[in-house]
Structure formats: structure tokens, C-alpha cells
Amino acid sequence: MASALVAATASSLSAPAMAQSETQTIEGIVAIVNDQPISYSDVRERGSLLLLTLGAQQPTQQQIQQVTSQALDELIDEKLQLQEAAEYEVEVSEEDINRAIADMARQSGLDRDGLVNVLLQSGVNPTSLEEQMRAEIAWRRIMGGLYGSRIRISRNQIDEAIEQQRNALTQVQYNLDEIFLYAPTEQDKAQALQGAGTILEQLEAGAPFSLAAQRLSSAPTSAAGGDMGWVALDDIDLEVAEAVRNMNGPGISEPITVSDGIYLINYKAKRDPNELETRVDLVRLAVVDGSEDALRDAASQANSCQAAIEAADADPNLSANELTDIRVEDLGAEGQNMISEVAIGQPTQVFATSGTLAVMYVCDRRQSGAAVPTREEMEDRLFGRELQMISQRSLRNLRREATIIQRGS
Length: 409
Hints:
The protein has 409 residues and is an alpha+beta fold.
């Protein structure tokens, strides 16, 4: 909410416009979610908060109408989340809410009272933000409690994800952010397409992409402000890849329609693999007496760099040398081929060196200018994505099972 909130204090922006657009609307109930009502006043307050978040200075009537629809969707989801919280007896204290708002305020360079004043000066009732925080906190606790201990990220998943990251470094990469509006039906797509157009207008007017992604995106990256990191186009949706490929350079894409929704992509930068430099940490395990059988036997039992070092410490016929931060390009064609063929912790083929035989273990492989995450970082990333996908799927299931009556439907 950062810069958009601060900028909002200088003008009478979105909330008054929102209020004015609704003065002719008969106050009452706009929707009922499992017997719990959502009023026009609730929707008006949330719409004002959304417009403020996006930094809308002078929203058009079309933008206000579209944000009203988005506000109602948010409020329906929050009703469902809070109903689940009551079912599981999850309580969110005022202290929890105040702490969350204070954290948000700090991101804006304000304290809690300062943030509340910004809201009030812009015609936004702070209660709308408090209720949003209550639902978000409760839902996180429910999802974490139900599924956090059930999610298992296997070694193979981590290995495959890291290998995919390394492979991507050999291709042209794009630094991208995403906003994804979930729309499984054609009717939903038409509405989402209008919403994407409204969001795009605000982004082009200076609204922070990360804030819009946090508030509006259905992608697992929403918690990170839509940040996809550096990706190869082969690893993303075909339609999105094609749109990025056709962009002239950094900027925000037009809405991109895919099978289950609409994307907006923020293309930040591009880099070529020849701009990168591969470096490795190695352990060279050699046999003193030149016996290939002895070396192969030792290598078959040592399944990591540390194991190779320990094997050499225990056997006087073996020697191990650690080589750190070696530039792969300096190893020559044969050395590069051997190193590229093996996974981390595995030995290369036997080769001759200094009058004896040896194998080389690859302990680490990285690209300068492009950080490959550690195993722990990748595990955390995969866990977060999995929990986010479960959370979104659970909320969609709640919507399908709920009794939701909207005015006019």
C-alpha cells in the first residue's frame, strides 16, 4: 500500500468519487453468504480501499464499477474465511490486527496512527482494512494448521527444481512479475478481462505492480508481490511466453487470456546466457598407486564430496584435493564436458592426471550474476507455493459449496 497511500493524502481521490457514485443507490444488502449479509456500504468501503491501494487519483465511472465488482468478490471470500475460522474456533485478537496494520504502515514509512489518518483523510473507514486483516490472519492460521504439517517436499522435488533453475541459466531469461485473475468460465473471463483493463490503467498511471499483485492476483506469487524471478520462456504458459516474446522491451503487457484466466505481466529485464559465468567447487579424488579398480571402488562408495574427503583420510592410497570457486570456462573442453555431465555430489568419469588416475566430484555449481537457491531456500519456496495453491483451491471449494445470493441474481 506504500507510495499509493502517501500520494493519496494530497487529493480527494478515490473514496469521494466512490461515495458520489453510490449516493443514488438504495442502501441495503448486495449479497448474502451462507445467511450472512454484505451491504452496499461494505462494498463501497472496500472499493474505496482498493482504489486507494492502486493509487487511483481520478477514477472513471467504468473503473469504479469494475472495482466495485472486485470489492464484492473480496468481501465474499472474507465472509467464507471468517466462517471457517468460527468453525475451527480460530480467534484473531485486536493485538494481532493492530500488529498487521502496523507492519503495513512501516512499509509505507508510517506508524499505525499515520496510516489510519491517511485512510480517514481519503474517506476510507479503517474498519474495512481491519476486517480484511482479520480474515487474512485467520485463513493463514487455518491453512497452516490443516496442511502445514502434511506438505512434504521430497529430495527429488528439490533436486528437479534446482536442476530446472540451472538449466534455465543456459537460456535467455526474463525477469517477470505477474498478476493472475482466475476465471474458469467464459463469463468469468469477460469480467476478468474488464478488471485487467482497469488494473492496467492504474499501473500505467503509476500504481505499484507489487501492491496490485498482493491485493488482486490469484497466482501463488501474490504473497511476493507477483515476483516470478528470472525465468526461461519455455518454463511458463505458452500464451504468456508468446506475449513476452512479442514485447519490444521492458513494460507491462496487455491482458493475456489463458485457459483459466487473465494475466498481466511486468517485463523488467532480459539477460543472455553468454552474460553469465559458471563457477564450481570441486573435490579431486586420486589413487596413489594408479589402480583404476581401487579408484572405482572408492568412488562407488563415496556419494558426496564430504564422503570422498573422508575416504581419502581413511585410506593412504587415496588423496583428496578441494578446489573452490573454479571458473568452468578455464577447465578446457574435456573438463567442461565431464563437469557438465554429473550432478552435485557425484563423481566424473575416471581421467588421467599427473601420472595417476582421478575422478572429480562436483560440490557446488553456480552462475555469477544469477543466484541458484540453496536446497533450504528451494524447499521453503516449494513449500510456500504448495501451501498457497492449497489455500486458493480450498477457497474455491468453499465458494462452490456455499449458498451465495447476490442482488439481481
